[in-house]
C-alpha cells in the first residue's frame, strides 16, 4: 500500500516543468499552427538563393524595364539564373541561322526575341493584334496603340510581324543573349560552337508580377522575408540581452543602484519610441546593422522590469542563500541561479517581442527610414506600392507583402500566446 501510494504520488512530478509546458503547448492548436507557419517562412528565408536560382529564376536586383508593373503571369527571359532548355527543343542548327558552325550574340538575340514574341502572340496567328500590344508593357508604348502599330507596319499589310516588332528593342530584351554567350564561351572567341552551346534560355514567369522597375515581386518577397525575420529576431536578441542584464543587475544589487537604474528606465519610457529610433538613425546613419540595433536598444525597457521583479522574488529563496553561504560570487549567482530560474517569463516576453519588432521595422520602412536599396523587406515593399495611383492600378504590389506581413505577425502572436499559456504555472495539470 505504501509503495503504491508513493508511486501514485510520484506520478505528477515524473516530468519536468519544461516537459509539462511542452505538452501543453502541443495541445494548443493555434500555437502549433503558428509554429509550423513561422518555421516554413524561416525556411523560405534561409533558402533564398536556391529558390531564386531554381524557383523564380530571377535575382533580387535584376530589373526588366520593358516589364514594368506587369501583373502575375507575365514572362521574361532571366538575365542571370538561366534554366537551360534541352538542345532537342532548340537545335543548334536552327539557332545558327547563317550556317557558319557557330552562334553569335545576334543569333541568340533573334531566338530570344522569337520566344518573347511567341509569348505576346497569345492566339498564335503570327502577328500582334491591338489587344496583344495593349497587354505588352505600356510604359514603353505610345498611348495611341493604333498609331504606333501603323508606324511600325513597314509593309502596310495591317499586321505587325516578328521582324517589324523587332523595332521595339525595349520590349524584347537582348542584353541577356550577350550574358548567355559569355557564360558558355569556353575558348573566348565570342561565339558558341556545337560543344559549347547548351540550349537557349527559356522565359520565366513572374508569378507575383513585377514592380515599377520591372523586378520580380516573388523574388523580392522571399528576400524580404529574410530581412524582416532577421530584423525581428536580432532586434529581439539585442532587447533581451540589454533588458536581462539591466534588470538582473538592478534587482540583485538593490538599494540606490536599483532606484537610479529604474528611474533611467522611467525617463526613457517617457520619450517617444519612434523619436528615439529616428534620432539614432540620423546620428549614426541608416545602415542595415544599425536598424535592428536601434530597435532593440529601445525595446528592452519592459524586459528589464520583468527580469528585475523575478530576480527580487528569487533572491529570497533558499538556494540563493545557500549559494552565498558556500562563497559563490555575485556573477555566478546571477548567471547560474537567478537568470536560469527566470527563463520562463523571459522566453514568453521574447516571443511576443518578435512580432512587435517586425511591425516597428515595417513602419520605419514605410516611412523610408528602414531597409535601403538594394535590400528590401515586406514593409519597404508595401511602402513602394502605397501611393493611391499604384494601389488602384497595380494592387499586387501592396497585397502580397501586406498579406505576408499580416499572416506572419498573426502566427508569431499565436505562438507567443501559446508559450505564455504553456509556461503559466496556473495552467499546470496532473495529467
Descriptive report:
The protein has 431 residues and is an all-alpha fold. The chain folds into 2 domains: 15-47 and 217-427, Orthogonal Bundle (MetI-like fold), CATH 1.10.3720.10; 73-206, Orthogonal Bundle (Recoverin, domain 1), CATH 1.10.238.10. The chain is 62% helix and 1% strand. It contains 21 helices and 2 strands. It has helices spanning 2-10, 17-27, 29-46, 48-56, 92-95, 105-120, 130-135, 145-152, 162-165, 175-184, 217-253, 255-270, 273-284, 288-297, 301-315, 318-325, 330-341, 343-366, 378-384, 388-393, 396-422; strands at residues 74-76, 204-206. The chain is elongated. Mean pLDDT is 78; it is low at 1-14, 137-143 and 167-173.
Q: Judging by the overall fold, what is the CATH architecture of the largest domain?
A: Orthogonal Bundle
So what's the overall shape?
A: elongated
Summed up, the helix count is: 21
Q: Cα-atom Rg, whole angstroms?
A: 31 Å
Describe the structure concisely.
This protein is mostly helical. Helices cover 62% and strands 1% of the residues. The chain has a two-stranded antiparallel ribbon.
Topology (elements, then pairings):
Layout: H1 2-10, H2 17-27, H3 29-46, H4 48-56, E1 74-76, H5 92-95, H6 105-120, H7 130-135, H8 145-152, H9 162-165, H10 175-184, E2 204-206, H11 217-253, H12 255-270, H13 273-284, H14 288-297, H15 301-315, H16 318-325, H17 330-341, H18 343-366, H19 378-384, H20 388-393, H21 396-422
Antiparallel strand pairs: 1-2
Helix pairs in contact: 2-21, 3-11, 3-21, 4-11, 6-10, 11-12, 11-14, 11-15, 11-18, 11-19, 13-14, 15-17, 15-18, 16-17, 18-19, 18-21, 19-21
Amino acid at each position: 500500500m505504501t509503495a503504491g501510494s508513493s508511486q501514485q504520488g510520484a506520478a505528477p512530478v515524473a516530468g519536468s516543468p519544461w516537459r509539462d509546458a511542452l505538452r501543453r503547448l502541443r495541445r494548443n492548436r493555434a500555437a502549433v499552427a503558428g509554429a509550423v507557419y513561422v518555421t516554413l517562412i524561416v525556411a523560405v528565408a534561409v533558402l533564398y538563393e536556391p529558390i531564386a536560382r531554381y524557383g523564380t529564376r530571377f535575382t533580387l536586383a535584376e530589373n526588366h524595364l520593358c516589364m514594368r508593373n506587369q501583373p502575375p503571369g507575365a514572362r521574361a527571359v532571366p538575365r542571370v539564373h538561366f534554366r537551360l532548355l534541352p538542345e532537342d527543343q532548340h537545335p543548334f542548327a536552327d539557332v545558327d541561322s547563317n550556317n557558319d558552325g557557330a552562334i553569335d550574340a545576334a543569333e541568340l538575340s533573334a531566338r530570344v526575341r522569337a520566344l518573347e514574341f511567341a509569348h505576346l502572340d497569345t492566339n498564335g496567328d503570327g502577328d500582334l493584334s491591338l489587344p496583344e500590344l495593349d497587354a505588352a508593357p505600356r510604359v514603353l508604348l505610345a498611348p495611341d496603340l493604333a498609331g504606333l502599330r501603323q508606324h511600325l507596319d513597314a509593309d502596310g499589310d495591317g499586321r505587325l510581324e516578328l521582324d517589324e516588332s523587332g523595332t521595339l528593342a525595349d520590349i524584347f530584351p537582348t542584353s541577356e543573349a550577350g550574358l548567355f554567350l559569355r557564360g558558355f564561351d569556353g575558348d573566348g572567341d565570342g561565339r558558341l560552337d556545337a560543344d559549347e552551346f547548351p540550349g537557349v534560355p527559356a522565359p520565366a514567369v513572374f508569378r507575383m508580377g513585377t514592380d515599377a522597375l520591372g523586378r520580380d515581386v516573388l523574388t523580392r518577397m522571399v528576400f524580404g522575408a529574410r530581412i524582416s525575420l532577421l530584423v525581428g529576431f536580432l532586434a529581439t536578441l539585442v532587447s533581451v540581452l540589454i533588458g536581462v542584464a539591466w534588470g538582473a543587475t538592478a534587482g540583485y544589487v538593490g538599494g540606490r543602484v536599483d532606484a537610479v537604474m529604474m528611474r533611467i528606465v522611467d525617463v526613457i519610457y517617457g520619450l517617444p519610441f519612434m523619436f528615439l529610433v529616428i534620432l539614432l538613425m540620423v546620428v549614426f546613419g541608416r545602415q542595415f546593422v544599425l536598424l535592428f540595433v536601434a530597435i532593440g536598444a529601445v525595446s528592452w525597457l519592459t524586459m528589464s522590469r520583468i527580469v528585475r521583479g523575478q530576480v527580487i522574488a528569487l533572491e529570497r529563496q533558499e538556494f540563493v542563500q545557500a549559494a552565498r553561504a558556500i562563497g559563490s560570487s555575485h556573477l555566478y549567482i546571477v548567471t547560474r541561479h537567478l537568470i536560469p530560474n527566470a527563463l520562463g517569463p523571459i522566453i514568453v516576453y521574447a516571443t511576443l517581442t518578435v512580432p512587435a519588432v517586425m511591425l516597428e521595422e515595417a513602419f520605419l520602412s514605410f516611412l523610408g527610414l528602414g531597409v535601403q536599396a538594394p535590400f528590401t523587406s515586406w514593409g519597404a515593399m508595401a511602402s513602394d506600392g502605397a501611393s493611391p495611383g499604384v494601389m488602384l492600378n497595380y494592387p499586387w504590389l501592396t497585397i502580397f507583402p501586406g498579406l505576408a506581413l499580416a499572416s506572419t505577425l498573426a502566427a508569431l502572436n499565436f505562438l507567443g500566446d501559446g508559450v505564455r499559456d504553456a509556461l503559466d504555472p496556473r495552467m499546470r495539470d496532473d495529467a
